[in-house]
Specification:
Distance between the termini: 184 Å
Number of strands: 2
Helix content: over 70%
Organism: Galeopterus variegatus (Malayan flying lemur)
Keywords: Cell projection, Coiled coil
Protein name: Intraflagellar transport protein 20 homolog isoform X2
Mean pLDDT: 83
Structural class: mainly alpha
Subcellular location: Cell projection, Cilium
Pfam families: IFT20
């Protein structure tokens, strides 16, 4: 197996050039930075500072997470509202049933009261009829007694 090694030697003048180019690049970046222009990690010229760009990306992600959470919250609240509406309808139905039952009981009570009044009137009528029959009976008993007395007198006279 053959290995090939390349060695490079850098002369002091090349090192100075490299340092000088580095300083010039830094100065150019500073001047562009003051003008609002920046280089990104791919050395593309950007209007925004890389830090601001990163913060913007993070903010965008946070906003997306926030919007997702708000969406979940809206779903939960929507479900809760539906549940509360359903319970309200059930409560209203039960309320209507209770009102109907109360009205039915009032109606039955009124019917019983009316029936009781009718029966009391019938009792009073029957009592009056009984009193008439009693008076008539007493009158008939008196007439019978008078007729028996008359018959007895008629028989004794003969």
């Amino acid at each position: 197996m053959t290995h090939l090694f390349l060695t490079a030697t850098v002369t002091p003048s090349e090192q100075n050039f490299s340092r000088k180019a580095g300083r010039e690049t830094a100065m150019a970046k500073d001047i562009l930075g003051e003008a609002g222009l920046h280089f990104d990690e791919l050395n593309k010229l950007r209007v925004l500072d890389p830090e601001v760009t990163q913060q913007t990306i993070e903010l965008k992600e946070e906003c997306k997470d926030f919007v997702d959470k708000i969406g979940q919250f809206q779903k939960i609240v929507g479900g809760l509202i539906e549940l509360v509406d359903q319970l309200a309808k059930e409560a209203e139905n039960e309320k209507m049933k209770a009102i109907g039952a109360r009205n039915l009981l009032k109606s039955i009570a009124k019917q019983r009261e009316a029936q009781q009044q009718q029966l009391q009137a019938l009792i009073a009528e029957k009592k009056m009829q009984l009193e008439r029959y009693r008076v008539e009976y007493e009158a008939l008993c008196k007439v019978e007694a008078e007729q028996n007395e008359f018959i007895d007198q008629f028989i004794f006279q003969k």
